[in-house]
Design a protein that fits this description.
By secondary structure, the chain is an alpha/beta fold. The chain folds into 2 domains: 8-207, Ribonuclease Z/Hydroxyacylglutathione hydrolase-like (Metallo-beta-lactamase, Chain A); 208-265. Helix content is 34%, strand content 20%. It has 7 helices and 11 strands. Strand 9 (133-137) and strand 10 form a beta hairpin.
């Protein structure tokens, strides 16, 4: 899960056009996935990404005929140019949240979306955000995971929109797709393709449970020391060995963890 990533072609149906928005939260940039059934002239574009450094113009030039734009969730680094690309290509935008749809109905869990002979199944996977969805590409045994699973590291549960209980349930649901033989590989929205989906999802679950235990222990320690177990105080204990530039993102996840722990004890 290390090294640089620049996108490229994967399987018989996938191409990743990497957006030029690298950063702490976006890794190498946003992966815009262009999916096309072999022999078809019509593509589906998943997460067209941000309006940075000509990415929209690149998509307009390189994607050819686009029958549909899909969003894994509403964050700008995924959705900013969706409406503009759809207008230029003469197609619709679909997302779970109606506010981000253009000319079409919202996505529905377990719905099969078919465009140009290509079929994708919608899997509602809330947690990173409330409107997070993933897509199963059954002919490739691939899961397009959005920000729920990243090609490197782990994702943020973006509290209060994101919720840890939902996140854990969604990762378990993804894991069940692997167990059922429907998914073998993950194409994430940031970072490289992950070839062993089951191992990655097991790691994600173990990491999140470990972090949850660390947060619970930090809360007890802070209380024992007479301190106030605020999210920031917990971050300073649990993430003491992590670059402080990531503490803001970590605080979002800690807030989600504190909420989850409160729900478990109420």
């Amino acid at each position: 899960m290390s090294g640089s990533w620049s996108g490229g072609a994967f399987g018989e149906r996938g191409e990743c056009l990497l957006a030029p928005n690298p950063g702490i939260m976006t890794l190498d940039g946003t992966n815009t996935w262009v999916l096309r059934e072999p022999g078809s002239s019509t593509a589906v574009v998943v997460d067209p990404g941000p309006a940075e450094d000509g990415h929209l113009e690149r998509l307009e030039e390189e994607t050819g005929d686009v029958g549909l734009v899909l969003l894994t969730h509403h964050h700008l680094d995924h959705a900013e140019v969706a409406a503009a690309l759809a207008e230029r290509k003469g197609c619709a935008v679909r997302a779970l949240d109606p506010a981000y749809c253009v000319g079409a109905d919202p996505l529905v869990d377990d719905e099969v979306v078919s465009v140009g002979g290509l079929s994708l199944r919608v899997v509602a996977t809330p947690g990173h955000t409330a409107d997070s969805v993933s897509f199963v590409l059954p002919t490739e045994r691939v899961l397009l995971s959005g920000d729920m699973v990243l090609g490197r590291g782990t994702t943020v549960v973006a509290h209060p929109d994101g919720r840890l209980g939902s996140y854990l349930e969604s990762i378990e649901r993804m894991r069940s797709l692997v167990t059922a033989g429907e998914v073998a590989t993950i194409w994430p929205a940031h970072g490289p393709v992950l070839g062993d989906a089951g191992a990655v999802l097991d790691l994600y679950l173990a990491h999140r449970r470990d972090r949850l235990a660390q947060v619970a222990a930090a809360v007890e320690r802070l209380r024992d020391e007479g301190g106030e177990p605020t999210a920031r105080a917990v971050v300073e204990v649990v993430y003491a060995d992590v670059d402080e530039t990531l503490w803001g993102a970590a605080e979002l996840s800690v807030r989600a963890q504190l909420e989850y722990l409160a729900e478990q004890t109420s």
